[in-house]
């Protein structure tokens, strides 16, 4: 492996991944960031890696452009992050999600098949989400990789669709794919539409903090750097055709997260205001990561308390 294509590399997790790889491996690999630069992208996210990557400003739905890029840079591995990623937007404009996430992923892997050939050993890591498994009740067992997919939002349905396309390319064309399914990430570089940066921004400004429903929905929080370590592990050691769950083992309600933020910023809980719940809002996600831990030796490195502390400090120092 020499030249790695990172789709969606200017977004939240993709940029953390590029910065992590550049810091860890130096010049060992060449990094090509392939990104459409939607509202969710921010080139400043890649500042720590300036001069160490090349940017291709293009759409994964453009099969010819992907093929040209794979050939031009002699790409021999793809880490695929590019997606529309915000559930609320998928409720407002669902077709955009099917187009970018399902068709986009299909176009990307078809381009890889055409350029690399069937049965190629070049690795394709598809970054997916635990939301494809649906929702849990209190007391239900955590998600494992063998569960049937039962997505509930247009976002998670589009991710499930993309997982199935990637799986089919492994079965039919013997492509060397691995799929990762992670829980909610948090950390630097996240777009302020998402819970943690939004709440920090509003708390800093002394504005009301809108919390959906009762605030009791549970998410399993994963520090983005730990996710990047997991993807690096799968890229190098994952077994062809396997799915790996990645979770932080940190189940917290949205309300607990918001209260932690307010406490750390020294703000009053009176700022919390409950707003009408999100349509089809999944109640609980909890992910069993035993497989990646046992088979590939991955471990999360921080507790949610430590990770949140670092994250809140990062956003608190950010100029909006
Ligand atoms: N953030 C999370 O908590 C989380 C959790 C589980 C899974 N994921 C998955 O991880 C991946 C990255 O998520 P994120 O939070 O960094 O998302 P993000 O929205 O911050 O970034 C997505 C990036 O993809 C780019 N992009 C979107 N459509 C594109 C297209 N058609 N062609 C090329 N580039 C395109 C955007 O410009 C952006 O830079 C996504 O696939 C998402 O489904 C995210």
What does it look like?
The protein is an alpha/beta fold and 320 residues long. It has a domain at 3-185 and 223-248 and 288-301: NAD(P)-binding Rossmann-like Domain (Rossmann fold, 3-Layer(aba) Sandwich). It has ten helices and 13 strands. The chain has helices at residues 12-25, 63-72, 87-92, 94-116, 154-173, 195-205, 224-237, 254-264, 290-296, 304-316, and strands spanning 3-7, 30-35, 53-57, 77-80, 123-129, 176-182, 185-186, 209-212, 218-220, 222-223, 243-246, 251-253, 272-275. The strands form four sheets. It has a seven-stranded parallel β-sheet with strand order 3-2-1-4-5-6-11, with helices on both faces. It has a two-stranded parallel sheet with strand order 7-10. The chain has a two-stranded parallel sheet with strand order 8-13. Helix 5 links the parallel strand 5 and strand 6. Helix 2 (63-72) crosses helix 4 (94-116) and helix 4 (94-116) packs parallel to helix 5. It is globular. The structure holds nicotinamide-adenine-dinucleotide (NAD). Residues 7-8, 10-14, 35-38, 40-41, 59-61, 81-85, 100, 104, 127, 129, 159, 182, 184-185, 191 line the site of nicotinamide-adenine-dinucleotide.
The count of strands amounts to 13
Strand order of the largest sheet: 3-2-1-4-5-6-11
Task: Report strand %.
Answer: 15-25%
The name CATH uses for the topology of the domain at 3-185 and 223-248 and 288-301 is: Rossmann fold
**Which class of the domain at 3-185 and 223-248 and 288-301 in CATH terms?**
Alpha Beta
Task: Tell me the series of helices and strands, N- to C-terminal.
Answer: EHEEHEHHEHEEHEEEHEEHEHH
Task: Tell me, rounded to a whole number, the average pLDDT.
Answer: 96
Hetero groups in this structure are: nicotinamide-adenine-dinucleotide
* Sheet with most strands: 7 strands, parallel
CATH-level-2 architecture of the domain at 3-185 and 223-248 and 288-301: 3-Layer(aba) Sandwich
**Number of helices, where a helix is a run of at least 4 consecutive DSSP H or I residues:** 10
Shape: globular
Tell me the name of the CATH homologous superfamily of the domain at 3-185 and 223-248 and 288-301: NAD(P)-binding Rossmann-like Domain
Radius of gyration, Cα only, in angstroms? 19 Å
Distance between the termini: 39 Å
């Amino acid at each position: 492996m020499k030249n790695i294509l990172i789709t969606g590399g200017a977004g939240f997790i993709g940029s953390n991944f590029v910065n992590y790889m550049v810091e860890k491996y130096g010049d060992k690999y060449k990094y090509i960031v392939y990104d459409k630069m939607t509202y969710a992208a921010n080139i400043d996210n890649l500042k720590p890696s300036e001069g160490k990557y090349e940017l291709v400003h293009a759409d994964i739905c453009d099969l010819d452009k992907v093929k040209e890029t794979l050939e031009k840079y002699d790409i021999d591995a793809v880490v695929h992050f590019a997606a529309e990623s915000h559930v609320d937007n998928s409720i407002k404009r669902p077709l955009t999600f099917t187009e970018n996430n399902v068709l986009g992923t299909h176009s990307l892997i078809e381009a890889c098949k055409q350029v690399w050939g069937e049965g190629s050993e070049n690795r394709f890591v598809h970054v997916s989400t635990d939301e494809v498994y649906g929702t849990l009740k209190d007391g239900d067992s955590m998600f494992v990789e063998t569960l049937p997919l039962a997505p509930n939002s247009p976002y998670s349905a589009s991710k499930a669709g993309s997982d199935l396309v990637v799986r089919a390319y492994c079965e039919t064309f013997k492509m060397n794919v691995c799929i990762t399914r992670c829980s909610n990430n948090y950390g630097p570089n996240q777009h302020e539409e998402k819970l943690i940066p939004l709440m920090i921004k509003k708390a800093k400004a002394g504005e009301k903090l809108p919390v959906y429903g009762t605030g009791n929905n549970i998410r399993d929080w994963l520090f983005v750097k730990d996710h990047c370590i997991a993807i690096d592990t799968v890229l190098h050691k994952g077994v062809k055709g396997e799915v790996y769950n990645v979770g932080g083992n940190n189940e917290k309600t949205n309300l607990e997260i918001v209260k932690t933020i307010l406490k750390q910023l020294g703000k009053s809980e009176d700022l919390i205001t409950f707003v009408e719940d999100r349509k089809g809002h999944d109640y609980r996600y909890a992910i069993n990561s035993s497989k990646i831990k046992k088979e590939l030796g991955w471990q999360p490195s921080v507790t949610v308390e430590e990770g949140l502390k670092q994250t809140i400090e990062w956003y608190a120092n950010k100029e909006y």
